[in-house]
């Protein structure tokens, strides 16, 4: 099941079939909130005469279409169930038996005894650095601009504030002084997710789908570059 959301609209693509066979898919398109005189719309796609590769290409095209139309994909609520069923399937494929025979128990004990003892350290513990005064902190943060926090804009504001040793409110004030309505992490993260999804689509497809994905990646990357360039002053 594929669930995608854009604004007040949602799309849900349900795959139907039986063990080893995909028969058809049903696409439901409806608003998330109640809207007068607007009900859900349905569309069915028949896969009875389609090969597995053709169905895969259909799903890739569908995912690419959602990205191009600015829909965000929500994780399938059944994904944990599917993951549980697949536990252990790839164990034997990735099994590396070399590690089981590198050392016998006797040899490992001998090697541990041959290791030299650690050097005794009798150095006094380092004192933590003294915190600057409140007045010094205010003077420092008052001079800060978005250029001073540039390399942390891709982080959540709480994580960026810890690295910069300031509070979240200081970063919000810096954003407002620079003409930003909010900390840009979510905006940047949204661009990065779209690029990652497009790359995954491109790596799994070929022909026209791959060319469309490449063109869209270039467009989104340019949008991200323009957005970041507009932040810096």
From TrEMBL:
Keywords, in A-Z order: Coiled coil, DNA-binding, Nucleus, Transcription, Transcription regulation
Keyword field contains Transcription: yes
Parts of the chain that traverse the membrane: none
Region Disordered, residue ranges: 103-140
Keyword tRNA processing annotated: no
Highest taxon in the source lineage: Eukaryota
GO molecular function: DNA binding; DNA-binding transcription factor activity
Protein name: Protein RKD3-like
Organism: Momordica charantia (Bitter gourd)
Higher taxonomy: Eukaryota, Viridiplantae, Streptophyta, Embryophyta, Tracheophyta
Gene for this chain: LOC111004772
């Amino acid at each position: 099941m594929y669930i995608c959301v854009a604004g007040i609209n949602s799309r849900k693509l349900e795959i139907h079939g039986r063990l080893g066979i995909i028969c058809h898919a049903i696409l439901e398109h409806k608003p998330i909130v109640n809207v007068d005189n607007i009900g859900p719309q349905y569309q069915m796609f028949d896969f009875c005469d389609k090969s597995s590769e053709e169905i895969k290409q259909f799903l890739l095209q569908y995912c690419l279409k959602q990205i191009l139309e600015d829909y965000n994909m929500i994780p399938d609520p059944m994904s944990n169930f599917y993951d549980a069923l697949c536990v252990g399937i790839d164990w034997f494929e990735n099994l590396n038996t070399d590690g089981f025979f590198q050392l016998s128990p006797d040899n490992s004990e001998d090697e541990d005894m041959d290791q030299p003892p650690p050097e005794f350290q009798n150095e006094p513990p380092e004192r933590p650095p003294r915190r600057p005064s409140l007045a010094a902190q205010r003077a420092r943060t008052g001079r800060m601009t978005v250029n001073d926090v540039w390399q942390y804009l891709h982080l959540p504001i709480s994580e960026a504030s810890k690295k910069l040793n300031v509070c979240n409110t200081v970063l919000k004030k810096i954003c407002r002084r620079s003409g930003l309505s909010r900390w840009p992490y979510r905006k940047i993260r949204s661009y990065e997710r779209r690029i990652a999804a497009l790359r995954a689509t491109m790596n799994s497809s070929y022909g026209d789908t791959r060319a469309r994905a490449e063109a869209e990646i270039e467009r989104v990357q340019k949008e991200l570059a323009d957005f970041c360039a507009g932040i810096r002053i």
